[in-house]
Amino acid sequence: MLILTLLTLSACGMTMTEKDFENQTPKLVLEDYFSGNLVATGLFEDRFGNIRTQFTVDITGTFDGKTLTLDENFVYSDQSTEFRRWVIEKTGPNSYSGTTENAIGEALGTASGNSFHWTYKFRLNVGDDVWKVKFDDWMVLQPNGVLLNKATVYRWGIKIGTVFLSFRKQAAVEAADGEPARLAS
Distances from the Cα of 149 to the Cαs of 43, 66, 78, 137, in angstroms? Predict the structure, then answer.
């Protein structure tokens, strides 16, 4: 029983790092992957495992050699919409910083192998309230070109939920479906 308890406690202390992905392929180059038109599908799950909302995102990305700009158009399951523009600077061979209107300060991130990890603080609209939250965001590129994203959201240091997203290049969506990708209606 003591050994089982020790193993459980040691597993709780393990944290995923960028180093865990450094030799994984295909290599994720953020500015290459996000240049052009993409479609994302996602959901937000609260800390109790309840899906609170689902959404699609139509994304247009441009890279000028130093700055990646992402224009994101969200459509939520209740038919509400939101526009967000991320401006992401490449600050080193594998490092990035980004800003968007509701971000508090800068988002800081590192690409490693097939992954991208970044953290940031954000003003999140929740009903008629605005909550200050922290995102711990991991993206992992799959061999089929799908980019999976898991973002854990914290408020006052307590996990309030998780965002799950799946990104695909719009051309890949059109090829698979035989027609142009469309936002949920």
Answer: 11, 23, 22, 7
